[in-house]
Design a protein that fits this description.
Blueprint lengths: L19 H4 L11 E5 L2 E4 L1 H11 L7 H24 L8 H16 L2 H10 L4 H20 L9 H10 L3 E2 L2 E10 L6 H19 L4 H8 L5 H4 L2 E6 L5 H7 L11 E3 L2 E11 L2 E2 L2 H31 L2 E3 L4
Antiparallel strand pairs: 1-2, 1-9, 3-8, 4-5, 4-7, 6-7
Length: 323
């Protein structure tokens, strides 16, 4: 079975959510141990709904009782769907489930940013870290189960991909693909400090000229958000997406050429041109994978919903607490 990235599915409430719910806003809903439904005899607790119910109600300004009940019913149906999927996943053998669970939990912790915020998250929803770990484990089982059923990456016939392409011409704007090192400069920086940053950029440029790997230097020194993940690769950029000074340099380079240090409002930059792309129609073979993924993403929730409906029809579902 392939290694699935544990992004949480459309069917499942996110483990990581906007932290203002933990920090500054009054909690609208508190989870409890009250049983709201049973699925094949297994209890579904009010607490399993609490986090998503909190998030959804915060989208409404002083929600009425009617709105609360509608949202609550929708989330209850979703949680019941999770439970029937989780029960169906029991037959799976996931040898590295413990490792995957810890990785998922670490992702949550990293997303929250600090131990203090994690504890705030847990306190806001009356959760323990053990419960958070259990939730992550359930989600992994469900994702693996859906993958085993071919629902994570549904098959899209080549003819359907081609038909989609023929009906929607894919046009390229002129663009450049560049790798990028940014040394950020704050607006209120002192001149002496700014000069230190400029000198550091110059030293990085000299290291590149001596043969140091651009991507490695980007990962180690760039302040650009994508640097750690991509080695500074910004992908294709159309004209006017970046500041004029950036475009002027990037579009003047030859493929493989590295710019001198230059300045924009963001700081000091070094750019390496990887490719230039003229305007025109994108060939089918360059976008077929993208189209396939798009169609898979469009079809996945429909197939999952149908599968859940089928499982639920075979399950003994008892709603204990109505709105």
């Amino acid at each position: 079975m392939r290694n699935i990235p544990h992004s949480l599915l459309w069917l499942l409430p996110s483990l990581v959510f906007v932290l203002t719910a933990c920090n500054n806003q009054q909690t609208l809903v508190k989870g409890s141990g009250e049983i709201v439904a049973k699925v094949n005899g297994a209890p579904v607790f009010e607490s399993q709904m609490a986090v998503e119910l909190e998030q959804q109600l915060q989208k409404h300004n002083n929600p009425s009782t009617e709105i609360v009940n509608i949202v609550r019913q929708r989330i209850l149906e979703k949680v019941i769907g999770q439970e029937v999927l989780f029960q169906a996943s029991h037959a799976l053998d996931i040898p590295d489930i413990a490792e995957k669970t810890e990785e998922a939990l670490q992702t949550v912790k990293n997303g929250l940013g600090s131990e203090e915020r994690l504890q705030g998250y847990l306190k806001a929803y009356n959760l323990t870290e053990k419960q958070l770990r259990s939730t992550a484990r359930r989600k992994i089982y469900i994702e693996e189960y859906l993958d085993s059923k071919g629902l994570m990456s549904p098959d899209i016939p080549e003819g359907e991909v081609r038909s989609f392409y023929d009906k929607r011409p894919f046009k390229n704007q002129e663009g450049v693909r560049v790798k990028h090192i940014l040394l950020a400069v704050a607006e209120d920086v002192e001149p002496a400090e700014k000069e230190v940053i400029r000198q550091k950029a110059g030293e990085l440029r000299r290291l590149i000229a001596k043969g140091e790997d651009f991507s490695t230097l980007a990962k180690e020194h760039s302040d650009s958000a994508e640097a750690q993940e991509t080695g500074g690769d910004l992908g294709y950029l159309r004209r006017d997406y970046m500041p004029p000074e950036f475009d002027a340099v990037a579009y003047s380079l030859k493929e493989g050429e590295v710019s001198d240090v230059f300045e924009t409002k963001f700081g000091f930059h070094i750019v390496k041109l990887m490719d230039k792309r003229p305007a025109g129609i994108v060939p089918f073979n360059e976008v077929s994978d993208f189209i396939k993924r798009y169609l898979q993403n469009e079809r996945r929730p429909q197939l999952i919903a149908a599968h859940v409906e089928d499982l639920r029809a075979k399950a003994d579902v008892e709603i204990i607490i109505e709105n």
